[in-house]
Amino acid sequence: MGLVDLSLRDFASVLGSDAPAPGGGSAAALSGANGISLTKMVCELTLGKKKYADVQDVIADIHHKSGILQEQLLAAIDKDTEAFNLVSAVFEMPKETDEEKAARRAAMQSALKEAAQSPYDMMLVMVEALEVTRKAVGKSNTNAASDLGVAALSLKAGLQGAWLNVLINLSGIKDDSFVTTYRQKGEELLERGCSLADTIYESIVDIV
């Protein structure tokens, strides 16, 4: 059974235990999934309403994209833990001979790259989710405007959490080109996403 199939109580229990995984990366993915789920919910509360007849096509498109992003972020909950488990598995590798030590170092570098890639991919999805959420501001059911604000905050928290997980894995990678590339691209995503989230939040504050 995957993490995503656990009850909320069971997930919280394993997250709060001394198990090395799931950790912050999976929690970040869950935060993002909650955020885009709220965006999808707001669309559900707008579709079919006469008051919003002139924006039905726009809301339907946002609803469709939200569903896809929701699934991607739910999948990321398990993907991040799987990536971390690759790193953990390296510690079980033998290290008696020079050859074994070299193989262990190579495996660790490969695992760390995968562990950095997973939250980076998460960031890509969350920025897209924030862009989709922004499109709903001012067009969706005003009675659920606060939910869009919470969506933005949840996605921002997930984005920032994912970035921290990128950084901690980059710190152990010896490939300078890889580190430089992902640090630069990650910083760009972080700035863009946080700006989107803040814009959405401030717009919602003005509405409510």
Description:
The protein is built from six helices and no strands. It is mainly alpha-helical. It has one domain: Four Helix Bundle (Hemerythrin (Met), subunit A) (Up-down Bundle).
Assign an overall shape: elongated
The description of the largest β-sheet is:
none
Under CATH, the homologous superfamily reads Formiminotetrahydrofolate cyclodeaminase monomer, up-and-down helical bundle
Measured by DSSP, the beta-strand proportion falls in under 5%
Tell me the count of domains.
1
Helix amount: over 70%
CATH class, named Mainly Alpha
Q: What's the overall average pLDDT, rounded? A: 96
Q: If helices are DSSP runs of H or I spanning 4 or more residues, what is the number of helices?
A: 6
Low-pLDDT ranges: none
Q: Which fold name corresponds to the CATH topology?
A: Four Helix Bundle (Hemerythrin (Met), subunit A)
- Radius of gyration, CA atoms, in whole angstroms: 20 Å
Distance between the termini: 41 Å
Topology:
Layout: H1 8-15, H2 24-44, H3 56-90, H4 98-136, H5 145-170, H6 176-207
Structural key phrases:
single chain, 208 residues, mainly alpha, Four Helix Bundle (Hemerythrin (Met), subunit A)
